[in-house]
Amino acid sequence: MSIGESAITIPPAPEFMLTALDVEKGEPVHPLDRLQIMSADAWEVFTLEFVSYLGKGYESVTRCAGAGDKGRDVIAKYAMGWDNYQCKHYKDKLSVANVVAELGKLVYYTWRGDYTLPREYRFVSPKGCSSDCIDMLAKKSRIKAEIIKRWDKACKDKITKTESIPLEGTLLDYLNALDFSFVDEMSSHELIEKHALTPYHTTRFGSYHLKRPQVRKPESSAVGDNEKVYIDALLDAFSDADGAEYSFDSVMDTEYKDDFERARINFFSAESLEMFSRDAFPTGCYEKLKGECHEGVHSVVRKKFDDGYQRFLEVSTHCVKIPYDSHPLRHFLQTSDRKGLCHQLVNDLKFKWIKK
């Protein structure tokens, strides 16, 4: 072997168990890295997404895009005021000069009376703030000093294109009276944490972070209000098979007990998946899943059977074979969910086991 050359060893095997998602997509791009490749417009929409779900009692959240926003990007209004989320998507970290330029607009337009001071003013940037900027935001009294020192260069001729705004007279008095304790930044980690609480997160970053909770077991002695329709339909299907009358209690002593208990387990599983979907996926995602299930079993439901019980069995057998390859929830689907979807469709009155 020549000098400077070394043998290449075989890379070690992965320390985790591979899933279909791992093989299809490879190692996921970390959300913090994805933040860096967003366009400026996408960055504002990203901010709009998580601000809408901050849970601070906002009555409305709007985006001020383009020229004339007067230093406001994402405005969150509540009963007694508003918060501003200032979106800055620069190639470098936010500097003191960047922050001063934006706060200069805030000072000028609130002094002029175009809008009131916000309750909170947060800088939102994928790369965060420089160390000097962080120090300034931590020591609020320094903010005012930096604005005064940098006004002529960063603000005087840059707030508007139509006039020069010297820092003097009542404007200077107004600035000196301000307390900038409401100004701060949101770190990249905080942004990801807050955005992960929204149903938009999987659309932007994938399902890397999602863990489906354990399914709650149905109570053996009670039927929930959301179970009555599909349970009555199932009991009717049993009755249709042998002519006997069945109730929640009496069916437990018959050959249908296992069908009945599994139906409830499957329904609860699907209900759990629906709740999981509402928290983690965009609106309407689960309804589309039910729509695909309905389409998949429709022709089987339409077939002629001797009784409703036979229709229930055939549909239950067929529904587990339906491919959901293009649906966002496919990696979380279990066999119980697939069967439970059919009971949800019965609950929605999409079909019955007995054709009247």
Structure explained in plain terms:
The protein is α/β, with parallel strands linked by helices and 356 residues long. The protein folds into two domains: 29-205, 3-Layer(aba) Sandwich (Restriction Endonuclease); 225-347, no CATH class. Helix content is 47%, strand content 7%. It is built from 14 helices and five strands. The chain has helices at residues 20-25, 31-36, 40-51, 96-112, 131-138, 140-154, 169-177, 188-195, 201-205, 228-242, 257-280, 285-301, 308-319, 335-347, and strands at 60-63, 74-78, 81-87, 120-124, 183-186. It has a five-stranded mixed sheet with strand order 1-2-3-4-5. The longest helix has 24 residues, at 257-280.
Please summarize what this structure is.
The chain is an alpha/beta fold and 356 residues long. Helix content is 47%, strand content 7%.
Helix share, percent: 40-55%
- CATH topology name of the largest domain, in short, is Restriction Endonuclease
Main sheet: which strands, in order across? Answer: 1-2-3-4-5
Instruction: Name the shape in a single word.
Output: elongated
Poorly predicted segments:
none
Order of helices and strands: HHHEEEHEHHHEHHHHHHH
Domain count: 2
Protein name: ABC-three component systems C-terminal domain-containing protein
Organism: Pseudomonas arsenicoxydans
Domain ABC-three component systems C-terminal: 227-353
InterPro entries: ABC-3C_CTD6
